[in-house]
Write a structure and sequence with these properties.
Layout: H1 21-35, E1 40-45, H2 47-58, E2 63-69, H3 78-85, H4 87-96, H5 98-108, H6 118-124, H7 129-141, E3 155-160, H8 168-178, E4 181-185, H9 196-218
Parallel strand pairs: 1-2, 2-3, 3-4
Length: 219
């Protein structure tokens, strides 16, 4: 398994050019090509789900199957667009007082700050404030409805069925567009890491499903 910190996030590279989701997809594809580990099952959660979709579209040679979760085809609905408009002020706050900004954000999301989640806060404070704000703008522009149905590879969607950030209905629309198997995890958007017992079984089942479909296609 290989996990990537995307540019501007966590320990990811700090690029001089403006943040773009297509560049993140190219970065991840280049890593797979460099390590000669592809074609791979690509898993994307939240923003990573948009990047995974772009990888499947633009870098088909390194992607053999797709698993998406906590994400959707677009963020064009009015409520979500309002959310992304706040990313600019969030980026400013993160630049001025990163630890305090993320502490407040986590607490408002119902995440208890303790020894178990301290690493999460530590990694969040590594984000580039500029790229964090730009990521919000990029997500606000993202829309795969015009091309996602043409991505013809085994796919699964793990629906976070209590998600308040990306509605389960939009996640199911994504699954329908991909003709993907659907698995459910009863968590909210930010519960991914602090409720592994509720999420990981669905993810493991999704990996097994697309791996099986891939083997059947090759046989």
């Amino acid at each position: 398994m290989l996990a990537i910190d995307h540019r501007g996030h966590g320990r990811g590279l700090r690029a001089l050019e403006p943040f773009r989701l297509t560049d993140c997809a190219a970065d991840a594809a280049a890593v797979l090509a460099r390590l000669q580990t592809g074609p791979a099952i690509v898993v994307g959660y939240s923003m990573g789900g948009t990047i995974a979709q772009l990888m499947a579209r633009d870098h088909r040679d390194v992607v053999c199957a797709l698993i998406l979760s906590g994400t959707c085809q677009h963020f064009q609905d009015p409520e979500t667009r309002k959310l992304w408009k706040w990313m600019g002020p969030v980026g400013v706050a993160a630049g001025v007082a990163p630890r305090r900004a993320f502490e407040v954000g986590l607490k408002r999301s119902g995440i208890e700050l303790n020894a178990r989640t301290a690493w999460w806060l530590s990694e969040l404070t590594r984000h580039s404030a500029r790229d964090l704000a730009a990521a919000g703008r990029e997500l606000g522009r993202f829309d795969s409805r015009g091309w996602l149905a043409a991505v013809d590879i085994p796919a699964a969607v793990v629906v976070t069925s209590r998600d308040r950030a990306v509605s389960p209905a939009k996640q199911r629309e994504l699954a329908a567009a991909l003709r993907a198997d659907v698995f459910e995890a009863p968590i909210d958007h930010l519960d991914l890491t602090n409720r592994p017992a509720d999420y990981n079984p669905a993810l493991i089942a999704a990996v097994a499903a697309v791996a099986g479909a891939r083997r059947a296609a090759v046989a």
